[in-house]
Design brief:
The complex is a heterodimer. Chain A is mainly α. Chain A has eleven helices and no strands. The longest helix of chain A is centred in the middle third of the chain and has 25 residues. The radius of gyration of chain A is 39 Å and the shape is elongated. By secondary structure, chain B is mainly α. Classes of the chains: A mainly alpha, B mainly alpha. At the A-B interface, helix 1 and helix 3 of A face helix 2, helix 3, helix 5, helix 6 and helix 8 of B.
Amino acid sequence: MQPSANNLSDSDLELLSAYIDDALSVAERVNLERRLAADPRLRAELEELQATTRLLRRLAPVLPPRSFTLDPATAPRPAPAFRFNWFMQLGSGLAGLALVMLATLQLLSSAPGAVGVAPAAPAPAAIEVAPMGAQTSPQAEMNAPAAGAGVAATPEDAATRLQATAPPAPDTSADSASADGARESAPELLATAAAAQALPAASPSPAARPGFPAGFTLALGIALIALALAWRFIGR
Amino acid sequence: MASEETRLVEAGQRGDVEAFNQLVRLYEARVYNLCYRMLGDADSASDVTQETFIAAYRNLPRFRGGVFRAWLLRIATNTCHDTLRARKRRPAVSLDATGETDSGPLSYLTDTGESPDETALRHELARAIEQGLAQLPDDQRVVVILSDLQGLAYEEIAEITGANLGTVKSRLSRGRARLRDILRAGELLPSKFRHDEE
């Protein structure tokens, strides 16, 4: 049995181990070889570690006792890479549906009879606080003079119109702002304005912004629904 | 080769079991050997190897490129660690049983054209090394197996074990030193093996 040479530091052990694997830098190797030449104890340590490593490397691999291939009939289905697929399908489909409904509302409210009664001036408050949401919207143009003149036939009528104008604002703050404008210019519609304010922003899509014709909204909605279906049936 | 492997991985990700099975055939010996050396008995190694491939197939869509072998061996290593932890909670199988079970495939140091005495010595040393490996701490054993039995580079071992390069080098050196101590204590590191192959 060899005399024990166990008192090497961890760093020296690491150097010897890396030396065996030829994983030292040139400087480290030169320095270590100089030490090895001068220190028989270090040399003996290296030889033992080399012998151990050599024995390990000569250990023959064992043969697997059987094949580990999977049976196609019982193989588990691979987990989907993206777990939000269903969410995206549902979201896209719902957004499309909402756009189609919005376009239908737009088309209905711009039907002959409803159009043409509005001259020019929109409600000033609406212009001030919600220029994007209400300023140039045909619905706003329709509603504002009606509200200002106090000619809203029935509260139901006004409510319908307000609902049609509520979605265009891209966020809830603009929503309430345009509702505030309506409140200022049309005190008699306070109750219905509050109702409109309480409505969730059902479709915050930019397609509902003023300047987008109903046809475009409709097309976008249908495209989104088609995308959701294609995703479901083809995308997998 | 790499592109063929990539093709098989992509087909497997689409649910092509046969393509995945080609990957299994390519790597099953390596995975089985890693499990066998980690766990020390053939039955557990078979179970864990099968578990590894099932888990790999199930999670294949989450493999985002890189070295497939390292990814696979990482699953195998983690599954081995799980098994070893479970064993420690209810110790029934001892790693010291390595090489002494009837079901375990005995491995031998490779050599040819040797005398019966040399063959006997070779077998004794193989058994001693298997038992020495079994005595190493898990984190050192896996690095020694991947480096000295499977011939992998430090970088790939770091990827498989999730440790940094410095930790790999340190575990390897300590594992080798400890194994050397075990062999020496059992007088199983004869001078013949220390000097005759220089």
